[in-house]
Amino acid sequence: MWREEAKTPPPAAPVDKGKQPAKDDSAPAGPKTGDPNAPGPSTPQTADPNAPGPSTKKPKPKPENPPFPTRTQCDKAIKNAPEKDKSFYWTGAPFEGRSGMKTAKAYAVSHGLTTVEQAFAPGFTDKKRYKGDQIAEGRVFQKAFSEAYAARTSGKVYLLMPHSAMPFCDSIFYANEFKTIKEGGRVEKIIWIDYPTTPADPATVATTWWETGGADPPCNPHVRVPPGP
What is the per-residue pLDDT for 58? Predict the structure, then answer.
């Protein structure tokens, strides 16, 4: 029986060792070596144990208004005592409101006279600065600083009040300031300036309301609610 002999494969072509196999660009790139000078991965920062923590201090409470000053405190609080012949007062119905008081103060300032408010630091006589009963305690305080001012008065005193009127007996001027003026013994007389026909120069006024050694002028006994200056 005929038998086909197995064929021997031809020898492989010799490889040129000087040539390198072409790089296959389609092959996936391997891992790249990092730049040794490049910064490494960031590490989480830990809190400085010495750093101050959040503030635990509570805000300071707003200070409360102080109580009304006493008469002794008012005496010590005077910063601008009136000079001799420079004290100025007013009383009567025309000056019970803010508008009237503003008019009286403006007249005094325009002639170089000193009012009670000017004798103290700005705002000292403002009752709203203090805590307490603004009517009852405020009235006591008003009397206190008015007496402290009157105790510093000397020489001639100027009083603005309508010539057709008289001061109320319970007014601060008559019951407190005038009383203190007499007790102090430093005032020669009180010049009476008419209102609203106020003179251009109060120094020319010849009308005297009271002078040392004289009797107390009459006052209106009517009790006002609330009482005025």
Answer: 75
- pLDDT above 70 (res 33): no
Displacement of CA 173 from its chain's centroid (Å): 30
Type of residue numbered 189:
K
Look at the block and give the residue holding tokens 């010590």: 76
- Its pTM stands at 0.70
Q: What is the DSSP code string of the chain?
A: ---PPPPPPPPPPPP-TTSPPPP-TTSPP-PPPPPTTS-----PPPPPTTS-----PPPPPPPPPPBPP-HHHHHHHBSSPPPTT-EEEE-SGGGSSHHHHHHHHHHHHHTT-B-TGGGB-TTTT-GGGSBS-TTHHHHHHHHHHHHHHHTT--EEEEEE--TT---BTTSHIIIIIHHHHHHHT-EEEEEEE-SSS--S-GGG---EEEETTSPPPP-B-PPPSS---
Contact between 88 and 158 (Cβ < 8 Å):
yes
Q: Are residues 162 and 194 in contact, defined by beta-carbon separation less than 8 angstroms?
A: yes
Q: Starting at the edge strand that comes first in sequence, how are the strands of the sheet with 87-90 ordered?
A: 87-90, 155-160, 187-193, 208-211
CA 188 to centroid of chain Cα atoms: 40
146-202 per-position pLDDT tens digit: 999 999 999 999 999 999 999 999 999 999 999 999 999 999 999 999 999 999 999
CA distances from 8 to 1, 12, 14, 24, 225 (A): 22, 12, 18, 33, 143
